[in-house]
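INTERNAL AUDIT FORM
Audit reference: QA-55
Scope: verify that the stored structure record matches its stored sequence.
Auditor: D.O.
Record contents follow.
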Amino acid sequence: MSTQPDHILIVDDDRDIRNLLADYLEKQGLRCSTAANGREMKSVLEHHRIDLIVLDIMMPGDDGLTLCRNLRGGNDAHAGTPILMLTARGEDMDRILGLEMGADDYLPKPFVPRELYARVRAILRRARALPPNLETAPMAGSRAMHFAQWTLDTVNRHLVAADGTVVALSGAEYRMLGVFLAHPQRVLSRDQLMELTQGREADVFDRSIDLLVSRLRQRLSDNAREPAIIKTVRNEGYVLACEVTAESRGQSAP
């Protein structure tokens, strides 16, 4: 049975760049749609299932950071769609803000299309599977993980609060939380978290782990000043400071 190619949405106000990237990615076997702004991006998302969004930061009107924040703040089917942010070379603040707002990766301009394709494939691989290190963990055969008045639905890949509110997670957030839930009450260093969530494709950008933990705390309503769920262990890393119970695939929900 043939499978549909991954569908990539390229959002950039420069038509030549949009067409160049779309043509290249389609030659690599991907399906591409393009949008020049946030309005067109919304229209594409309403009519198509998108597997990954390539989103330029510098655009007139709502810029890429705003569009990323709005997408991650929603609870629709696209809230967790992986995002690759295109940033101006040397603009570290844009890169940091992009990660804080929920981007899964970033690529500074100028770049060659081949590098973009490599990043896209890496993000798609990570979005579809937990790292191999977690395959033997309790999470692997579970349909849900319960912790600190929260439930991680591993089938739909989102969080559920005690009152039933559904909280969408990006692919990076889901993988990071999966690592913590697989290793509760165990201090994990930044290097360990980087390896477990991104493996050999890990970026050397040290703050990416801290930013990802910060985003998870926001999703979990965990006080950043005095967190109760994901705690900081000074000079060592982070720890999920609560018990975790797994609900097996064949088990009925409580």
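Auditor finding: record pair retrieved intact. The helical segments are 15-27, 38-47, 64-73, 92-101, 113-128, 171-182, 190-198, 207-219.
Action required: none
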